[in-house]
Write a structure and sequence with these properties.
2 copies of one chain form a homodimer.
Chain A: H1 7-16, E1 23-25, E2 47-50, H2 54-67, E3 71-74, E4 91-94, E5 101-105, E6 110-113, H3 119-128, E7 131-132, H4 144-149, H5 157-160, E8 167-173, E9 179-183, H6 195-199, E10 208-215, E11 217-218, E12 222-230, H7 233-245, E13 252-257, H8 258-268, E14 279-287, H9 290-306, E15 313-315, H10 318-337, E16 342-345, H11 354-368, E17 374-377, E18 382-388, H12 394-414, H13 430-436, H14 439-452
Parallel strand pairs in A: 2-4, 3-4
Antiparallel strand pairs in A: 1-2, 5-6, 6-10, 7-11, 8-9, 8-10, 12-14, 12-15, 13-14, 16-18, 17-18
Helix pairs in contact in A: 7-11, 8-10, 11-12
Chain lengths: 465, 465
């Protein structure tokens, strides 16, 4: 079905790129490129190219299209669903060398970047100039190309929305190798079907993002966090819809449990400000006047105390901020380090069902005698639930994992939730997407893939295939 | 190509709807249904159905699909690009009777509505309960179904974005008559291609919206407007990118010229607070504390004075608010009433090119000796430019209009703008969309239309066809 790459293909690609040393052949390719952060699925590309320009990508893809060679784009490889694993070998395009910030446009409040710029670099660059790129996924070493490809969400989605809300324009290499522009440096757009919004979240299956123009905001002048301990997870989570109803919109509402905090303390070798309670909400408030921020957090602190919170710690010094948020940022790695293997469920449910869903994961934990720590974005209904292998033999692990996943995704569906809030479908969650969506929906997605990519060369076997 | 409707089709449709009196046949159909607010293009449907339920729509569309009858959905008919004109006769579905507000969900901050609810009803309903639906298109009698179909923008886009940003989920009848759900009552979603975002702005060509779940915000507690007179339009418009650079984000930044204000005063028989200057910016600021709102408008007022503004009037009484914003709301109708025929250009350009674009329309006004009043959303680069016929004979009018449009859209393209900011493409602007977009882009749109609607029965001849 796909042509396997030959020495001739390698020679051709070396002849068209600016720097032939950026092209790697089979055994020269590092193991890293055979997988992302998802365990259990890996495969090597035949050829790896560390691409440096849009034109290079365009020429390589055109060649691959003519010869029916599979092509997969890869950023930092921090994905959690196997989206960048080259299932059909072929050519992998590593975009991390395309890491230039092209333009900050202060009159239009936009930032134009190459796809390989890391999220942490964007944050640093714009905040030094008092601008703000609101999307805030936990993995700061992810590339912006990867973030756009999964429509990454992150912690500030409660107030500011997700990556989709901050992409004004994309330059994309289509599967036939042509370069297309979708969207523009404009605030409004009603000019035909929104192809830009199709590319966002399409996990590299419809085109390769080679440039992105992002919407910025002015940096809010004040930001304060609140850490609120509760007696148990139910109390913490059940406070969330009440906070939303209070008409105050925090920037972030994260929930965390003691066991995850302890893992993180151990992993980082740092102490969390408080770990004596069973469950916590961590909230942030931002704004342009201190009065407004103080007003907002006071309302929420009082409300939480009324609802049974044990206290409300203000996190306003740089030291405390660092201690709390670095712990929050390390949760995934800490859980990862606490077990031999894990898999993750990234469902999103309507906010008022989060408590029920977490309770259900606790029931499954008991039923299957398996550790299921979780944390996540309580304010936007997006949960990160980890099933930990903890030394189980392969057969038991596979069986338990499948049964637990089946039950969780079924329950999320019953609650009006979706399969993925922000990590995408990739390879690992396709089955659950197929289970959830009706045939029309899946067939339209397959049809769209066919329209963009009639020879199915771009990241085949992912999302809806 | 399409089957003309027969008595048999009429009888069948009458037999499946709840109320046969809601079905109209040819000569019984009011002239209103043959056009929208765009002049120069009209055609009648064979059958008009005032639909009342999703199931009714589903059954009618299924029948039309089987028999290859064209189907067009219509809301209030306030469109400006002929999108709801039934070019191929067939069946028209009037959704204005599906006007129920289904659910306000305070825990998830969502409002679920039928497609025929008018924008003014949504505003009234949610604001009474201290919630806020930010999109604010000028035409308040438009239906939400129409707003979603054109991705309507409106005045508050500077701060709050456009309709797309406030649609969480859609129920849609597909061209085969099946009912599908896109999106969900969730804040984040990375579960396959965003079909919801394809439907938004697709002007009734991919599916018929039968239910929408909208995102709400808490209603800001304070809102104040500023009316800022300038000596000329250049001074007014050139202040806009400077305002944006000041790191204050007004809710709205509208520009208006004396001639349009005078038309509006005459049309409404009401006096505008000031009409002695050539050009004005009208700004709104909102927030949850008076201090913040006052802080913001003071910065902008001072900045504008520094940039040469003649004054800065605070519009904070209910009376003044009403006088200013009712005038602003009447601009389109006032220009409409001032001439025998007009056509409109709804381009959007990057904010820093608005001044240049307005200057260019003034040049065209001179060059073609034709009146070209304009007003619009200076803060988001979306201009509404009206070419007024003022009694020209048909041939001269057609010629001048075409030449002026050709030049304007070409210039907008050179400035990195798009054909439509918020009114859509419909029938009238297709040529300019084709001119602007590359072949790949247009072919993908055509392909997507084919995937959704292989028999091309839904609103044929629009957007990309």
């Amino acid at each position: 079905m796909y042509k396997a790459c030959t020495q001739g293909d390698l020679d051709y690609i070396k002849s068209i790129v600016a720097e032939p040393l950026n092209v790697y052949w089979k055994e020269e390719i590092s193991e890293d490129y055979s997988h992302d952060e998802l365990g259990g699925i890996s495969n090597y590309p035949d050829i790896l190219v560390k691409v440096t320009t849009t034109e290079e990508i365009s020429q390589i893809v055109k060649y691959a299209y003519e010869h029916t060679i599979a092509v997969v784009a890869r950023g930092s490889g921090t994905g959690l669903v196997g989206a960048s694993v080259p299932l059909h070998n072929g050519i992998m395009l590593d975009t991390t060398s395309m890491n230039k910030i092209i333009e900050l446009d202060e009159e239009n409040l936009t930032l134009t970047v190459e796809p390989g710029v890391m999220l942490m670099e964007i944050g640093k660059y714009v905040e030094e100039k008092n601008f703000f790129y609101p999307p805030d996924p936990g993995e700061k070493s992810a590339t912006i190309g990867g973030n756009i490809s999964t429509n990454a969400g992150g912690m500030r989605a409660v107030k500011y929305g997700v990556t989709r809300d901050y992409v004004r324009a994309l330059e994309v290499v289509l599967p036939n190798g042509d370069i297309a522009e979708f969207g523009g440096k404009v605030v409004k757009n009603s000019s035909g079907y929104s192809l830009k919004d199709l590319i966002i979240g399409s996990e590299g299956t419809l085109g390769i993002i080679t440039k992105a123009t992002l919407k910025l905001l002015p940096l809010p002048k004040f930001s304060i966090s609140l850490l609120i301990p509760f007696e148990d997870i139910d109390g913490a989570i059940e406070a969330v819809p009440q906070i939303i109803k209070s008409r105050v919109i925090p920037t972030a509402i994260e929930f965390m449990q003691r066991e995850v905090i302890l893992s993180s303390e151990e992993f980082l070798g740092k102490t969390f400000p408080d770990s004596s309670s069973e469950a916590y909400l961590l909230l942030t408030f931002d704004g342009n006047t201190r009065e407004q921020v103080e007003h907002d957090y006071a309302i929420v602190a009082d409300l939480c105390i009324d609802l049974g919170a044990l206290d409300a710690y203000i996190v306003d010094t740089e030291e405390r901020m660092e201690s709390v948020w670095s712990a929050r940022g390390a949760f995934l790695e800490a859980i990862h380090a606490s077990t031999d293997e894990m898999d993750e469920c990234d469902v999103v449910v309507p906010r008022h069902r989060i408590a029920d869903f977490i309770k259900y994961t606790k029931e499954l934990q008991e039923e299957y005698s398996i550790r299921i720590p979780s944390f996540g974005h309580a304010g936007d209904g997006n949960l990160h639930i980890y099933i930990c292998r903890d030394g189980l033999d392969q057969e038991t692990w596979d069986k338990k994992l499948k049964e637990i996943f089946d039950k969780m995704y079924k329950r999320a569906d019953e609650y009006g939730g979706m399969v993925s809030g922000e990590h995408g479908i990739g390879y690992a969650k396709k089955e659950y997407l197929f289970d959830q969506l009706c045939d029309n929906n899946i067939n339209i997605m397959k049809g769209i893939k066919q329209v963009f990519d009639p020879k199915n060369i771009l990241n085949p076997g992912k999302v809806c295939q």
